[in-house]
Amino acid sequence: MDAQLKAKWVEALRSGKFKQGEGRLHEPKEDSFCCLGVLASICGAEFGPVKVDEGDDDGPTQYDYEATIDGYLISEPQSEEFKTEFTIKLGIPDQHELIARNDGHRLLDPGHPEHLHKHTFAEIADYIEANIPSDSDALPSSDRATVGEEK
To answer: At what angle do helices 35-42 and 95-103 cross, to 10 degrees?
Structure first.
């Protein structure tokens, strides 16, 4: 992961400027974010309604509240997950571990010793510093995400 982006993310998680939520990158009604939503925000993501279903004779077009950067959808519909291509571009090896730490449950591994333990943003920042490598050689620098200005 780009070292500057990682530092900005960790700083944002510790800043107290973001209310921690779960289940979504950003929940507009509560103005809360999961840890990945904080990262999306500092990358310049916009959160708003995105058409996820064209609708048909059985019902109207459906919209969901999703994250986009320059019109490109970076999140999976109705989820707090990034699209796989975006995690690769950012250099995040395992977004599911971050989601499990943020939300406090491990659906795929309920026997895990930390199942049902919700981590604070500060604890997640510590995990990121210790476990997500900076300036990964896995991708050429031209393929890494560009850090946008914080909104």
So the answer is: 120
